[in-house]
Design a protein that fits this description.
The protein folds into 3 domains: 94 residues, 3-Layer(aba) Sandwich (Rossmann fold); 106 residues, Diphthamide synthesis DPH1/DPH2 domain 2 (Rossmann fold, 3-Layer(aba) Sandwich); 109 residues, Diphthamide synthesis DPH1/DPH2 domain 3 (Rossmann fold). It has 328 residues and is of the alpha/beta class. Helix 1 crosses helix 2 and helix 8 crosses helix 12. 36% of the residues lie in helices and 20% in strands. It is flat.
């Protein structure tokens, strides 16, 4: 097992809080560990453990309603850092660090980084504990390393989540190095007009994100252009407490001023199958996670836009200005 589940720390926290009924949230990649985690916690603490089978995409995706419906008095959320304050206070985050030796891949990245001096270094939560080691190695190889200060939804300096790159946007650098996966590195590439390199720990590779970024930008422009032809719009409000971006009321007003018909819809999980039921709606705007529209472009037969893209649609923001500020 490469991930560190911090079992002793979790057991201590359960006992300290005197929890009786625990709901565990696991990201998709570690749901396979649910049985062993639940068995261990029940054996060591005597609590009743239920593992959520719902999708878990980030610290924004806390199963508060699920916990209340089950009568759980404690949520243990694995794989992410705290995202924001929630009304439900009994949440414990287990960050699940990956102990992979990243230095061999960093050595390989030196050739790609050869022409850059000032490099921004960021990471997903699984590798955040490696930032100091990587920074020291690159500095010994004559690089100036900048770790962005935590900002917005980021919990640590250098920490990035899928919707938060404000710290990265606030620094001046020649290139960006991302420890993690394609999801976070693509987000960085869509947020800042620099060469972004992914240290792909899971595929043992160093990848320049420019090609994928350019493809996604073309897709987003095409989605906006397709949506301009629509007469009936669905504005989707997300139910997840950490996934709320933009105002349905404002967008509805702007669209109606352009003689568009608007239906406001609420969903916990946005999927193509659910949207099929709204067969008379010609285009959608989702106000949940902005990565839904971007990442799942090929899955939706009808255009689906983010809040910022919708502002371009209603002429409140230019496409050029959106690119300058970043799609995310």
């Amino acid at each position: 097992m490469r991930f560190e589940f911090q079992n002793e720390k979790v057991i201590e926290e359960i006992k300290r809080r005197k929890a009786k009924n625990v709901l565990i949230q696991l990201p998709e990649g570690i749901k396979r560990n649910g049985l062993e985690i639940a068995n261990l916690l029940e054996k060591k603490t005597g609590v009743k453990v239920i593992v959520s089978g719902e999708t878990c995409w980030g610290g924004c995706d806390i199963a508060i309603d699920e916990a209340k419906n089950l009568g759980a008095d404690f949520i243990i959320h694995y794989g992410h850092a705290p995202f924001k304050e929630y009304d439900y206070k009994d949440i414990f985050y287990v960050e699940c660090y990956d102990n992979f030796n990243v230095i061999p891949l960093i050595k390989r990245s030196l050739e790609s980084l050869n022409s850059f001096k000032k490099i921004a270094l960021i990471s997903s939560i699984q590798h955040i504990h490696k930032l100091k080691e990587v920074k020291e190695f690159l500095e010994k190889n004559n690089k100036e390393i900048l770790i962005p200060s935590k900002k917005g939804y980021s919990y640590y300096d250098g920490h990035v989540v899928g919707c938060e790159y404000s710290g990265l946007k606030n620094i001046s650098c020649d290139a960006v190095l991302v420890l993690g996966n394609q999801f976070h590195s693509l987000g960085a590439s869509l947020s800042i007009d620099k060469n972004v390199y992914l240290i792909d720990i899971y595929n043992n590779n160093v990848i320049l994100m420019n090609s994928l970024r350019d493809k996604v930008i073309k897709q987003r422009f095409a989605s906006i252009e397709r949506a301009k032809k629509a007469k009936r719009f669905g504005i989707i409000q997300g139910n997840k407490p950490g996934q709320k971006f933009g105002s349905a009321d404002i967008l509805k007003k702007y669209l109606q001023e352009q003689d568009k018909e608007v239906l406001v819809i609420t969903m916990s999980e946005i999927t193509p199958d659910k949207l099929l039921s709204f067969y008379n709606i010609e285009a959608f705007i989702e106000l949940a996670c902005p990565r839904i529209a971007i990442e799942d472009y090929d899955k939706y037969p009808k255009p689906i836009l983010t809040f910022k893209e919708a502002l371009v649609l209603v002429n409140k923001l230019s496409w050029e200005d959106l690119l300058k500020q970043g799609l995310i």
